[in-house]
Amino acid sequence: MRRIYISGPVEGQPNYVERFSNAEELLCSRGFEICNPLDAREPGEGKNVIEACRKLLADCDEIYMLDGWGASSIARLEFVYAVDHKMTIRFEGTL
Fold it and tell me: Is the pTM of this model over 0.85?
């Protein structure tokens, strides 16, 4: 089973939990094993978020970029990581 990481904007997005959850549901229905970084976040994690996300991403085969990802500094770093590691990159609305 392919493991896919969900990436997208969080900061300033009032509905980000719902968007990640909807993506998780869609990807699960398509047979992916999901890595949702929101599930692994600790309250008050702060500056360690980037490192925690990178560790999760390293265990995945693919990345799923939610719309608006370019406005998120963390999502942009995740995208670059995926490119550098030759991961399959999927974009919201293109499955």
Answer: yes
